[in-house]
Design brief:
The chain has no helices and eleven strands. The protein is mainly beta. The strands form two sheets. Strands 2, 4, 5, 6, 9, 10 and 11 form a seven-stranded mixed β-sheet that branches. Strands 1-3-8-7 form a four-stranded antiparallel β-sheet, with no helix packed on it. Strand 4 and strand 5 form a beta hairpin. The model has no long low-confidence stretch (mean pLDDT 94).
């Protein structure tokens, strides 16, 4: 079965950096679109960034100058490098994979930006 496991979240001060990692298993993901979403308490889950099988990327306007999504050569891990973090970036960050028309989600990893 498909499993997505996020790691790398934690507590960081404003202006700091974190790198999130999502390890995918249970299938082949070469053709999949992979991405990161985030959700704060009481808020709608929102797109952070997406990356296609060919490496094309889209980043939300709120993060495009600060975050960078990437995937490794095996196409089974997606990364999110987060720089210049702000308190409003505080949320649970979820890995997402669109594979054969079906959406898969990780369990989420907490990112807290606070001094």
């Amino acid at each position: 079965q498909v499993q997505l496991v996020e790691s790398g979240g934690g507590l960081v001060q404003p202006g700091g950096s974190l790198r999130l990692s999502c390890a995918a298993s249970g299938s082949t993901f070469r053709l999949a679109v992979m991405g990161w979403y985030r959700q704060a308490p009481g808020k709608q889950r929102e797109l952070v960034a997406l990356i296609t099988s060919g490496g094309s990327t889209n980043h939300a306007d709120s993060v495009k100058d600060r975050f960078t999504i990437s995937r490794d050569n095996a196409k089974n891990t997606v990364l999110l490098q987060m720089n210049s973090l702000k308190p409003e970036d505080t949320a649970v960050y979820y890995c997402n994979v669109n594979l054969r028309g079906y959406e898969y989600w990780g369990q989420g990893t907490q990112v807290t930006v606070s001094s």
